[in-house]
Design a protein that fits this description.
The chain contains eleven helices and 16 strands. With about 375 residues, the chain is α/β, with parallel strands linked by helices. A hairpin with a 2-residue loop joins β5 and β6. The N terminus is likely disordered.
Length: about 375
Amino acid sequence: MPLPVDTARRRFTFGAIAGTGAILGGAIGLRPSLAATKPTEHKMPLIIAHRGASGYRPEHTLEAYNLAIHMGADYIEPDVVATKDGVLICRHEPMLSGTTDVAQRPEFAARKRTLTVDGVSITDFFASDFTLAEIKTLRARQAFANRDQSYNGRFEVPTLEEVIGLVRNHFKTTGKSVGLYIETKHPTLHRAAGLALEERLIEALTRGDMNKADSAVFLQSFEADSLKRLKALSPLPRVQLVDGGDVNFATGDVGPSVPFDWAAAGRKGVYTDMLTPEGLAEVRTYADVIAPWKRYLLKAVATGPVTEKTSEADCRIVENRALIDAAHKAGLKVHTWTLRNDRLPAVYKGDAQAEFKQLFALGIDGLFTDFADTGVAARKAFLDH
């Protein structure tokens, strides 16, 4: 079955990855270095460019990241997966067909195979079956059909070290700093395949002189085990992402979703357990920020009878300030995801800034958006109001 490309920040875990991959050897050439500093502290939340300016350019490309930087984003957000030879590249998932031209490349046709992904059989091309040299022959494409397709085929898939070089060069040439907000994707299964992400990530940041407590870097994951490993390796702040299932439009409640590392370790429970007082206290032992999906904070509740056709277009928004207050009381900052101009609930009547402003008013500390320019403009308008 084809892999959905718009799944909020939904996770797909890849099982039984072939090949172990060599340990990353030697540094990939970095641009001239100059220690980055933290972006200017804002009274209002951080604007995090989700996969770069992915509303305008193919996601996770240097061009998307660079555009987001020039739009004024405080942080750009690379997701990392590993190649067969153990290099971290920036992709939202290890599956490549949704965001590259791999399916149109006959020389790689034999690489397509079927794996079990979160209990679902997925047929695709997987990054762990390609060397970095092979990945570099691919070209990125826009993942959302309703967005501008004119940049398809023009940009490479970058390595994490190239993205580190981008932000450092920006600081060197402009004196302005932008941060990195890096996610380890499916770390349990990467580790099982001999392609552990955490050590490689910290090695790359250390080579870039960004593995310091005052570096403008957040480390994020849906898996607590990955964050605990990162805590042992680095002083950088960590972010526990909180996923959820489908929304019950009758109540606005988010359905259950199971953390993969918990399931792999035999631990019972679901993501919503992290949002209880006990769960928040546990998260605080290994993370500095909790980042629930926005539907935990802005609940979508149907205005009429719920049917199979009910969607967010038929809903009002019920604010859940209590969750933000509880997380703050537990000593955690709160970030949320993902705000999109072109996936705007009808209740906002086409005003792309309205959702941002609502979250600002609730006391959010940071938010992810595909449209960094909208987020920056909304924050300014909110401050000026």
